[in-house]
Amino acid sequence: MTATNSFSTAPASPWRARLERPWVKWGLVVLVVVLAIVVPLLLPEFANQTLARIGVFSVAVLGLNVVMGYAGQISLGQIFFVGLGAYVTAYGYNAGWNIVIVFVLACLIPAVVGMVVALAAARLGGLAIAMVTIALPIIGVPLAKRFSEVTGGSQGTSARFSAAPEWSGLYDDQWQLYLVILIGGITFLLTRNLVRGKYGRAFAIVKGNESVAASMGVSPYRFKVLAFTIASLIGGVSGFLYMVVVQYTSPETLNFGHSIELLASMVIGGAGSIIGSLIGGAWYVLLPQVTNIIDPNLTTVLQGAILLIVLFFLPNGFVSLPRLLRRIGRRDAPQRSVAEVPQHTEE
Amino acid sequence: MGTFLQLMIDGLSTGSIYAALALSIVLVHQATGLINFAQGGMAVLSAYIAWVIYGFGAPLIVAILAAVIISFFLGALIERYLVRRFERGDPDTAVVVTIGLLTLITGICAWFWTYNNQLFPSLFPLDTVQIAGAVISVRSLGTIVVIVAIMLLLQALFVGTKLGLALRAVAIDPSSAALSGIPVGRNLMIGWGLAASLGAIAGVLVAPQLTLTPGMMDSALVYALAAVILGGLTSPIGVVVAAWLIGILENLAAVYVPFIGHDLKIAVPFVLVFVVLLVRPQGLFGRKSVVRV
């Protein structure tokens, strides 16, 4: 499989070419798998829980990326599907259903709801779609309070099914992190394959110019509905994982403010980027913790200021950081080749 | 009948506040092609500025006028030194920048003035008048009058003045506008400044009712966005009519449709927007934009 993106016009750097070599690639895959197995055993409980929450919200950001980053449709309602997935999980588990069936339903029900909404909304252009998606969390919160026999009303509802089983000998936090890594990892792999394949190309044309897409025989309507449906499904996965880690959900979960934060995290990480989704998830979880450590009284001011400062220097999000550093390096030392510029990871 | 009329007038009054915010969103969109999520936050900041000046002992009307003028310059500065960097870039990034701005401004208000509710004096007397059996507050009527005046002024500005023509030209095609000798940058700053001033008026109209808090405008902003989409992004009159429609329908539905009640009345404008958009995707008063490949 070639990973060269047919839409980018920039030539691949030598560093990139080196990364493409098969043994480097497989070595990286093995390294990631080993880390995923070993790290949960070594880290303290708090770090494991933080990592697990980063995983949950990375998946949510990934779903948002499918519809916004790849297909170019503004969605302000992603948190609604996360919340819906969480509610379905809690209800299904408390009703005594098999947990596999609960998981499948937690993916399918948000996907179906997302599809129904998109069937109507995808006829509309950019901002009108944003308005329809804004409505989801805003109507979702009072609805969740209203149907209290299903949702537990404002009190919320909890489901504790993710305690480590006896035979594994693991602590709860380790078991939960493993579940997040496994389910989240599979979601990331499947999504990556999807957006790099023919659907990804169709999304990119729809994002670029709908009229061109239509004239090439790619139906913008069909692919917008598809992107919304997949995003909602991934949101449902994230909701299931949310119940694995947090074990409790309430109307507060699908607050409109969280939807906005997800959107900000996606842009900060990097729109239309798989790695960017991971960074976005980390941003979503870590930024409030960091600003709280700096000064609890200034949390909101700092969050806004940091967001603006980062975007001022990196309008394309953290994934564009290596490119920026390379450009600075080239400006400072024009005689050096690009490959010798020290590479930095996005963290 | 009395109740019905009263609900209508109250709906018009709350709708007018959404309308003021919606007008400033339209103004910014006309000038820069952006949807500014920080508009509500900026309105709150303006209201706090008026409140501080009033606290120094200035008459209320002077404090409000001063806040309107200060807001104009704040808006222009924000456009020049922050937003301009993102104006012709990725629209997603620009949206998130205005969200960051909203967070920052809310944080600043909370830092200076805490999250406690502050009492804000009303510009209009607290009297009520009897019209056809309905008890209607003078404040509601005053709010409506102010918004109608602003709407007419804006429409006149856009359609009847050179500045309005320049603002529209810049919004439609900045490079052609520049080639015809229009100072694009200055027009963008004026657009943002005017929008901030309008927000200030919305802020001081809403503050006496809700008392002054950093999050005061959050739900008004959401309604204003609904009004902007419903009315069509290009028409000040359309946006005001849409905002009134939303205010009235929301009020009527809460009382006359028992299932909806006060918790779900927020759903009414969105269902309305959704239904209208399915029939008229460009909004009630908007013009259809034609795309060439």
Automatic annotation (TrEMBL), chain A:
It is found in: Cell membrane. Keywords: Cell membrane, Membrane, Transmembrane, Transmembrane helix. Its main location: membrane. It is a multi-pass membrane protein. It comes from the Bacteria. The chain crosses the membrane at residues 23-44, 50-67, 99-120, 127-144, 175-195, 225-250, 262-286, 298-318. This is Branched-chain amino acid transport system permease protein. It holds the Pfam family BPD_transp_2. The lineage of its organism: Bacteria, Bacillati, Actinomycetota, Actinomycetes, Micrococcales.
TrEMBL record, chain B:
The chain crosses the membrane at residues 6-27, 60-82, 94-114, 134-158, 190-208, 220-247, 259-279. Its main location: membrane. This is Branched-chain amino acid transport system permease protein. It comes from Microbacterium murale. Belongs to the binding-protein-dependent transport system permease family. LivHM subfamily. It is a multi-pass membrane protein. Keywords: Amino-acid transport, Cell membrane, Membrane, Transmembrane, Transmembrane helix, Transport. Coiled coil: none annotated.
